[in-house]
Amino acid sequence: MGLLSGWPLFFQRLITTLAFTFLRFVFMTIQKIRWHYNGTSEQMQECLVPQNYNRCAQVFDIVLFNKFCYLQSCSIKDYILAHNRFESPRYIFDNDHVSLITINEDHAIFGVAKKKGMHLWKFEYYTFMRLAQMFYCNQLIFVPLVHFHRMSEELGDPKGQLVFLFNTARCGSTLLTQMMQTTGKCISISEPDSFNVLALWYKSKGDSPKLRELNRDVVRWTCRPYKDLTPLAYMLKITSISAYALPMFKEIYPQSKYLFMYRDVVKVAQSMYRFTQEFPTIVMANTLGKFSAALTEKCVDAMGYSGKEFRYKFWDDLSLGVFLAIITSKSYVQLRQKGFDVCAVRYEDIIKDRHYAAKAILKFCGLPESLEAEFLKGLDFDSQRGSIVSKEILSRHKDPPLTPESKRLANEALQKNGLPLIGEEWLLEGTITHKQ
User: 100 has which bridge partners?
Assistant: First the structure.
């Protein structure tokens, strides 16, 4: 990773994915024929019966994995899997190196880390949990949703304070989750994939008792207990455009807390451009978006997100970051206007007065002020180190310039959405880290 970027990376991944798709088709076709004759297919159907709870978890070995773009939601189509055995759900309860990866219409999908004791939410493995699960799991476990609900009832709600974090992207939110982790008293989980799925289902299908039940199940297993740590709080950092599902989480967990993190819009846009060069789908979206708003929407849909949020025609390389900041910041403002209890953290405030900001964030999260020194240790190293978006990798891309025309067009969009303009202080109401 990191050797190619931009369009060369796009075409390399496209060729690799086409070859992988063909290989997967051949492998799975042969395997399904084998399953038919050895009885595995029949056992898979029996797993769906509520009475067969004790043998409902199907364990697969990961033979091969390929992802066209790591920003896309997790899919079983990214894996070539070989059936290993059927297990009791008790295996998942008893082994805390097993973590929930995602859900689909039929199953909850868990990942088994390569070694016991590997807790993949930790930053020592990867910046984002869903990518850590892609790189460090050697088995997947499929559990039918009917049994997943029963497992969640047995597990119960998380014991620590729930804090949901959403953001503009490229604003230091990953750094904040790292700071929570360095306290040693909190579990911070960066961008678990299942929350993307829940948000999109909520957006497309609306609220329902079934979806609420599934939301509770996902929160419980994402925040599963660990043998060596009883956390004071769980920080769940969700992807930038999944914020529309937050009211549903608030109703299910009324004591949960909500933070929005942001940064000066120009800094977001410039950093977003450098970031896009490492992800094929955004390279395509950023290029095609200059021709048509509809093409931008289709590209974002292809990533597994809601393309309607991005139906804009771009004017230059800063446009994508500007619109992302507008969409997410506007959603924060609208939540507050509706009376939703949410506050904000500004990256510049943490850099300017780290002690004041630390106290404000810890207080908001219901954590003791005595954690401040450990909390601030999270500022000492790159939160994206070792990843495909580390400072070292992104530094090879130059920031696009903010031209007078670019500034004018951006300010028109900002003004239309009731947000601060470029050239003004980028400060949103409810920012707890801002020192009066």
Answer: 110
